[in-house]
Amino acid sequence: MIVVKIGGSCLSNKQDIRRVIEIVEKNMEKRVKPILVVSAFKGVTDELLAQAQNALTAGFDLEKMEKLHYEFIEDLSPQIKAETERRVKALFEELRRLLLGVSGSVLSSSSKDRIVSYGEKLAAEIVAAYLNNSGFEAKPLWDKDAGIITNSNFGNGSILDESKDRIRRKLDTSYIPVVAGFFGRDKEGKTVTLGRGGSDYVATFIAAALNCEVTLFKDVDGLMTADPKIVKTASTIEKINYSDALELAYYGSKVIHEKAIIPAMKAQIPVRITNFYSPDKGTIICDGGEATAISSLSNVVKLNLFSSLKVANIASLLSGLNAFEINPLLLTKASRHEISLVIKESEADIAQRTIREIDRKANTNVEKGFGLVTAIGSNVREKGMSASKFLFDKGIYVNAIARSATGRNLCVVVNREDVPTATQALHDFFYTHT
């Protein structure tokens, strides 16, 4: 058994779905049953979000989206085409009713999650139809029918551990399950989306529950030694351990989100990331991989906090931030009552509000215009601190620098405009500097 996740950027036309059929055929030839997890077709999630907003004001329009999905099913055999059209039409009717319910009202987090989930539902229906049309037996599944039970954190939910037993029961089937990624259902029966990397997260959680391998098909070759848009000589990482992959995701990699790595790490199952269009290359995330990589974030801020709490109680403040899914990237300064945190700029406002709720006497201010460049891997322990001197020699001003408790990463705060230069410099240092 293997879990195969197909990303939305890999589902843009009929030929892409035929590639999915080929992937299924290759696995079945090896007598390996695939469980598919699919994202919404390319561009559909953004369109759903736009129409949800339009429903509040000028009115929504589903014509473009309906045309896209109906074009996908034109080539199916008459019987399967008729049944798929019926099921797709029913989903669009449900979606239309939801949007009408939003019209002239407010768009709650719960309503937004329900609306956005239809991208994955439609994709699962159509991919399953193609599989049935090719002689396989397949069935679309989602949320509780696939065993995915979540908490109630709308927009950025987490899958509950009790889902594992449900997944084993629900996916122990004779047919090929085609699971809609990106969302689940909470205990009250409400749809909850899982945030960035949600479909990867569903795939790795299912694989962990079933104790099998998982392959994530994307439009890139895998994890890279640096962002190839910045570092032209960046190369694909063939093998990397869970901890380093987790830090690479946490500190800026857009290829995989950290929440998707955690289930695999706990279950000690390998995760393969590969290119949907040229699957010969790829990255394996496993227990024993070693690699050095440079990640970067160009929109971070320093949140300076003067609190009446003693440093010994700062942990409670950080826990309060974690409850809102705000995880400081770096602690750059700490004294008796003052700390300085590096966080993503998008989190600054809610972080300040949260801090004031915990400590009404707290004073905060935000310094903008920074970036964070992080070197990750085994070589960092040996060469990390000399890398800061290398940056200085290159004329890059370092605002702050710190190492992780493991010593396997080196975080450097630089001015935002220096992120590309610092990324290139650190990549040069660890890969070409002697």
In short:
41% of the residues lie in helices and 23% in strands. The protein is an alpha/beta fold and 434 residues long.
Provide a descriptive summary of the structure in words.
The strands form 3 sheets. An 8-stranded mixed sheet has the order 3-4-2-1-7-9-10-8, sandwiched between helices. The two termini are about 45 Å apart. Strand 1, helix 1 (about 15-30) and strand 2 form a beta-alpha-beta unit. The protein has 14 helices and 16 strands. The model has no long low-confidence stretch (mean pLDDT about 90). The radius of gyration is 23 Å and the shape is globular. It has about 425 residues and is α/β, with parallel strands linked by helices. It has 2 domains: about 1-220, Carbamate kinase (3-Layer(aba) Sandwich), CATH 3.40.1160.10; about 295-430, VC0802-like (2-Layer Sandwich).
Q: What are the SSEs and their pairings?
A:
Layout: E1 2-6, H1 14-29, E2 34-38, H2 44-56, H3 63-72, H4 78-102, H5 109-116, H6 118-133, E3 138-141, H7 163-170, E4 176-180, E5 183-185, E6 191-193, H8 198-210, E7 213-218, E8 239-241, H9 242-250, H10 258-267, E9 271-275, E10 282-286, E11 292-306, H11 314-323, E12 330-334, E13 338-344, H12 348-358, E14 363-377, H13 378-393, E15 398-403, E16 409-415, H14 419-431
Parallel strand pairs: 1-2, 1-7, 2-4, 3-4, 7-9, 8-10
Antiparallel strand pairs: 5-6, 9-10, 11-13, 11-14, 12-13, 14-16, 15-16
